[in-house]
Amino acid sequence: NETSQGIIKDAAYSTKTAQQRKPLHEVLLFQWVVSSGATRDFAFGNSWFFFELLIKTMGHYLHMTNRFSIERRHRFSYQFCDDITTLLRLIIRELLDRQHQTQRNGIDGKIHCTQLNTSLAFFINDCLTLMDRGFVFSLIKIYCKEFDLEITHGQPTDTSYYISLKLDFIRIICSHEHYIALNLPLLPTIPPSPSPSIGSMQSYSSNNNTTNGNHQRTMTIQQTDLTYEYRQEHYLVGIILHDLQNVLS
User: What is the pTM of this model?
Assistant: First the structure.
């Protein structure tokens, strides 16, 4: 009897411990974020490996917990998403500062930044497959905003290099297999209307000719002009066209 009770207690303790144990992808990312000095330099220098490991553990976690079938925004914890944002900002700072250092640990600064930037882009590309795409778009927005500030207000000698990094980043993001779907606008949900009355039909027919022309012109502007609304609805292609507009202007 005592033996059976001990087995039950051990099983309950093991279950509780397993529930409290953090997933590997969360631990890995947290350790990367809090690292410093030579450890962080090593992680940045081998970022391709750690990003690949991170993506594989994320996919394994979703598979083992049957989270592929739930909404994307509920697949990963808030803390994990916050750590990804923190890591992104750390890498952006590294990209903007490190390229001025010609040598560190025997590696040229620009070569290091190019490799780190490429690894980051492929990681975010993979995140579009596993995570909430609205969150991933917010990461892309942070990246573009920081680089746009440096391109606009930074040293003129660095402008071409920053543009090169950003274009390479966007090129990799846009190589996603669902690129077309990612650029399609979300259709607004229109509630079903009741059957129109005779009076409303007459009112509609009298005003239709005057409003139809304005509506058509508005729709044409929204679909062809590079407005803020257009760039919101067609996010990735909007970034490319906006950068092209800035270069040509």
Answer: 0.74
Q: Quote the tokens at residue 169.
A: 């980043």
Q: Which of 130, 142, 154 is nearest to 61 (CA)?
A: 130
> Cα 67–70–72 angle (5° rounding)?
90
Q: Contact, 108 vs 45, CB < 8 A?
A: no
Number of C-beta neighbours around residue 231 at 10 A: 16
Burial of 183 (0-12, 13-18, 19+ CB in 10 A): middle
User: What is the 3-class SS of 159-180, one letter each residue?
Assistant: HHHHHHHHHHHHHHHCCCCCHH
Tens digit of pLDDT per residue, the chain (249 long)?
555 555 555 544 444 444 568 899 999 999 999 999 999 999 999 999 999 999 999 999 999 999 988 999 999 999 999 999 999 999 999 998 876 665 455 567 788 889 999 999 999 999 999 999 889 999 999 999 999 888 888 787 788 888 889 999 999 988 878 767 666 665 554 455 455 555 554 554 555 555 555 545 554 445 566 666 666 666 677 777 777 776 776
Which among 29, 132, 30, 20 is positioned nearest to 75, based on CA atoms? 132
Residues 6+ away with beta carbon under 8 Å from 135? 73, 81
